[in-house]
Amino acid sequence: MSTENNVVYLLFPGIEPDEANPVAAFSNERTIDKLVEKLSRFEGGASVKKVLAKDNSLPVDKYAPLVEAGLLPYSVALDGDGYLFDKSNILGTDLEENTVEQDIDYILRTRTAKIKDPAKQWGMGGTYWAPDSKLAFKQAKLRHKIIYKALFLQEMDEIVAWLENILSSDDSEQFLKKTEQTPEQIEQRLSFLNGKAKLSFKHAAVKDLQYLRFKYELL
Fold this sequence. Notes:
By secondary structure, the protein is an alpha+beta fold.
């Protein structure tokens, strides 16, 4: 990294930014001007400030290759069904793309909260570098689909195994009493988890069964 006259150019979200929180640093004025010009189409826009290199704490030119390739950092947030929570043409406070491991870790940490409060919307989001918002959304959608499908299948296997164990144990009667269920009602829900059922039915059945487990273990 080389800086002209020992200065760097800091990128900030918004045209009236909080100068204590830059999101990226560049050594080349032309590169950041090119980025800011494109980000002017984003909601809130972006701004730049020239500072002495010694006053900068961010890695310099980390995102320069992406900018030179014509990519933009879109902030995309999807709900649990894979639909946009909000507009994607907003510059986020972190330009680093999440890894698959980070997204999986976040979703796993929301599992318990989701079971306790099934009505609340949980999703995933982050920065996606792409030439336009449509491709950024496609990237996010694909990541969402892969992770949620894998985790759903895992959740389904876990709840089925747990139910089979509890219903075949001495605690079966207590489970049915605490959850106010009959064996027939449980079997009906489990029938939605066979290979022929629609995915939406499977999701609903798994959520219901997870809630019954939570209710049983809580009481």
